[in-house]
Amino acid sequence: MRKRIIALISFLCYIVCWTQAADEHYYFKNLSIKDGLSQTTVNAIMQDKKGFMWFGTKGGLSRYDGMSFRNFKRDMNDNHSLGNNFVTCLYEDKKGNIWVGTDAGVYIYYPAREIFAPFNLQSKENIQIDRTVSAISGDKEGRVWIAVETQGLFCYDPQKEQLHNYTLNSFSANVQSVTSDNSGTIWVGFYGSGLFYSKDNLKTLHPYLSPKDGEEVFKDDVIMKIVPGAYNCIYISSIRKGVQELNLTSGNLRSLLLMDETGEMVYSRDLLVNSDNELWIGTESGVYIYNLRTNKYVHLHSSKDDPYSLSDNAVYSLCEDSEGGIWVGSYFGGVDYYPKSYTYFEKYYPKDGDNNLHGKRVREFCEDNKGILWVGTEDGGLNRFDPKTKTFSFFAPSSGFTNIHGLCMVGDKLWVGTFSKGLKIVDTNTGNILKTYQKNASPRSLIDNSIFAICRTTTGDIYLGTMFGLLRYNEQTDDFDRIEELAGRFVYDIKEDSGGNLWLATYVNGAYCYNVNEKKWKNYVHNESNKESLPYDKVLSIFEDSHRQIWLTTQGGGFCLFHPETETFTSYNSSNGLPNDVIYQIVEDAEGLFWLTTNSGLVRFNPETKQVKGYTTANGLLGDQFNYRSSYKDETGAIYLGSIDGFVVFNPKTFTENKSLPPVVITDFMLFNKEVRADEENTPLEKSITFSDSITLQANQNSFSFRIAALGYQVPKMNKLMYRLDGFDKDWITVGESPIVTYSNLWHGDYVFRVKASNSDGIWGPEEHLLYIHILPPFYLSFWAYCIYILLFIVGSVYAFCYFRQRSSRQHRRQLEKFEQEKEREIYNAKIDFFTNVAHEIRTPLTLIKGPLENILLKKHLDPETHEDLNIMQHNTERLLNLTNQLLDFRKVESQGYSLNFTKCDITNILKETYMRFSSLSRQKGLDFNLELPEENFCAHVNREAFTKIISNLLNNGMKYADSYMHIKLEVDIEIQAFYVVTKNDGVIIPDEMKEEIFQPFVRFSQKEEGKLATGAGIGLALSRSLAELHRGTLVMAPGEDANVFVLTLPIIQDTVITLDSDMENMDAELQTEASGEQYSDDKSEGKQSKESKHMVLVVEDNPEMLAFIERQLSSQYAVVTATNGREALEALDGNFVNLVVSDVVMPLMDGFELCKTIKSNVGYSHIPVILLTAKTNIQSKIEGMELGADSYIEKPFSPEYLLAVVSNLINNREKLRRDFAKSPFVAVNTMALTKADEEFIKKLNEIILSNLSNQEFSMDDMAESLNMSRSSFYRKMKGVLDLSPNEYLRIERLKRAAQLLKEGESRINEICYMVGFSSSSYFSKCFLKQFGVLPKDFAG
């Protein structure tokens, strides 16, 4: 009976203790598998010396740095991994190594090397730990005590590296807990045998006996935990006795906790002495926090409705970190963390039960006369909150209007503004709804059923803010007056300032102020061009501080201070450090600091210093997003702030500064985004990066990353990290969301990586974590590389000295050789220039010799002897001419930029023609002259003239030295697209060693000089090779001394080929035919007329003899005018009616080409044919002359008969064109144009005539004026082009137009007569008959 009474009294005491402490709140943060924990059953918790938290679970070992986990588990492929995943206990020894107890032995983790090693040391008794480890602890001497199931107790001495096993065979139970007190006494708790102690290192073991009666208090009891405490006390947790306090000084044993508030026995697993006065007890039913001074406790347990409660009631481990935070490990809930509170926010949020908050979206607070706080929500209606008891009661009638937007106390009446439900009047004494106001047809009813703000002024007026304007309550008529100035405005907040002025916050129209003195409304809006205007037009609230200053908050523009003197605003927004520009409410505390609610947490703002500090869920808030118009401060200074998750209550006076500075560590090192460990092969880490002071990296390891962490756990997200790499970064860099710092492609050298951290209050630690980094240079920049470079430099210098010395000597020799070559070249060029100049000069005298000689030979009645002498003279003249032509050709080939124009030619025909020319010579010398050709004709792209010269030179050279035969052969190779011309002769054989030299200019083979090469005038072979090379071919002598064999190789197809007009190609042949034919004779006979009727020819030649010769040849048939250069020729053209111009090309002042260009481009002369005479025989010169408009091109020396034939042909052709034009009625006048200038002239003239055809008065003067020409120039041009006077041409054009009209047959002859400008039909008929040989009527018929 006595025991029952004692138990009942104890139970009542526990109930009182628990009830007295129940009003305290503990908010836990949970870490589980989703956060990275290895497994949810946490058997052991420990914090190491670095600051890492370690959690031993059934699924491995986890290390936590405040932001992320690193898990250690068994890896069959890694010998240095944890050997068993079932962790039972943890202990850190004095060296910092972590002892991990598992259900199959002990493993030691060496953090510096990042490896696990099994503790396989055998004890002196030859026993090795291989069973479940119950506990590991240490004593003052550094020894490690290990309790192992069925193996007793082990003691490891790290200094002696000895392990001793105490089997404790006299005890049948296992050791569950072991510890040592301040005196060195070892306390051992058994699982079923009670509590024992030893003062002689377990030589003897004594049970604990009560000092009062000597009884064994814990006999046969299960001792779960023994921990030392303050004041020389130890705390024992057992199954039967609960939690006991043993004072080792007095020997008193005090029972602390045996049963919980429900009368159930407390099953305690772990104990934690949090402070001298507080003991945390981990049990099967949650956590008990026992106050050792007051003997009161708080029972914390898991609640499914409370996210801040313990996650599981089965608590297995407890640990206090260096910051004072408590870590709780449970069986199913992972780890729960209770941080030491520096910023205590009391949280209120919906829970199951009637006495809890209804609704999460807290909108309004209003205190009634009894001190009850009415809380309006937007989703749960009205709640009554008692700040003293901290209990809620739901206002049941509000179930019909759950969306509350405005609250205001008027006496004992609570005015409640709702969304869409009108205005409710609640009696706070009875809890009844006295009246409801809603919008109706009356103009004095509510303007809208949604009431967003209610304000009672000091004068007793009540104002309502709605979506469509402002209302004032009329108490006498019990209705509402509408404020017309605010009609249509969405009123969000109403505030009366200390001056009695009424301020309104509107949603889109800025802020309004009603001045009570002036009885006038003033509107303040945002002005983009004025920075001192309202920052945003969406104003959420109005606030007046203790200094009577007006502040406005906005939705998007921050908040601002109003200056009444200037009616301007000073704005504060995110650029001033605010986390968000949406500010809901401002509350001022007793210190004058502002508390601002935002979308991104709570902000403390100092209006004096403008300093900003933020608070988020990491600091204990319910959520980061607060709600509109949801703030309140009571008389005690407690501040209530509503959010979308409930509301928080705090008193800023209770806030303390967090002076705990988190240690900074580097947790991971990565090379090229791959983690590198100290235990890996080829790793640059000698030990863990966390413990490293320096690292050395290879040159190819210059891109790396660090993961850094601040080991502070209270508000880890608020901790800040900054880093800098000396030698690379100039300034400190703040770490963002990712804790990984990366550097890429660093240059070799020495660097210092610095990291520092701040705590949640922004206090930066003075100490920095330093890591010295040395990046080795690449081999080509290493010490040995520089040694090699120096050696190579020396060798190179010696080599360079020798090389440059030899090169200088070679250059000197080359300069001498070059000098000699230049001298030879100068001599060679002098020879060429000399012969070329002589050749040019010879050609003119040759012309004067050749011309008269041909005239003499044409005369009859020459005696045979004289005729023979003249033939010899002509033969040698031709020979001399060929020699000069070769010299000129060779000079052209030698000049730079010279090229040939290729056409498709019949090679077989050319060879046949050349063969025929040399046939008579071969017969004279009695040579066997043979030509071998393919069966079919063969064509290729060659320059006909150049190819003929090559073949002629080869045959001429062969004929000269051949004794008996001269053979020529054509071969074609289609596969390589080339053909060969081979000449072969006997006679003087050129040796093989000299077969290349004979192609040099001015070199010939002299048989008289014993087969040596001798210089001479021969240039035929040199010219032939040059021409072959211009064909992209070769000319060589075949080896062998049986005969002289020359091989000419040319490509069949050339890249560029031109096609000349067939008339131009055959012009020479035609002219030759005409010169020897009957037509020429007829023209000569026709030309025998008086000088007055002869055609006029202008001869331009700078050589007087040549000029006289040409004049003499032409004067018999033509009137000749002479000039010595181009300028004189132009003057002669202006003074004479010239029919043709014969001009030399090379002349002073103005050459023949320039003269030809001027004539053909001048409309006054463009009709005159031009013949060019020159010694330039190449095809390019001919083409140039033709492009400039020359009508013919004759080479010097020329045949006088050929010249006469060309002149006669050009003049006669012009005459024939003119006759055809005049006699044929349908030949257009544009057929007379032979040049572009003539064509333009005739076109303009024809247009003028056709436009004036019917004008009978139209005359030559009118035509000349229309063409902007003088009368004489116009007349000369008409005669030159058409050989008609202007009036004759006008008449012919009229008659031709009449012929066209007659053919069309649409008009009568008389009408046509006047249409074409004739005034008389008879005169018209006469002219028509004379011009076309037929009368108009017959022509029309």
From TrEMBL:
What are its E.C. numbers?
Answer: 2.7.13.3
4-aspartylphosphate modified-residue sites = 1144
Q: Which UniProt keywords apply?
A: DNA-binding, Kinase, Membrane, Phosphoprotein, Signal, Transcription, Transcription regulation, Transferase, Transmembrane, Transmembrane helix
Keyword Membrane attributed: yes
Q: Could you name the domain of life of the organism this protein comes from? A: Bacteria
Under InterPro entries, the record lists: CheY-like_superfamily, HATPase_C_sf, HATPase_dom, His_kinase_dom, HisK_dim/P_dom, HisK_dim/P_sf, Homeodomain-like_sf, HTH_AraC
- The protein in question is named histidine kinase
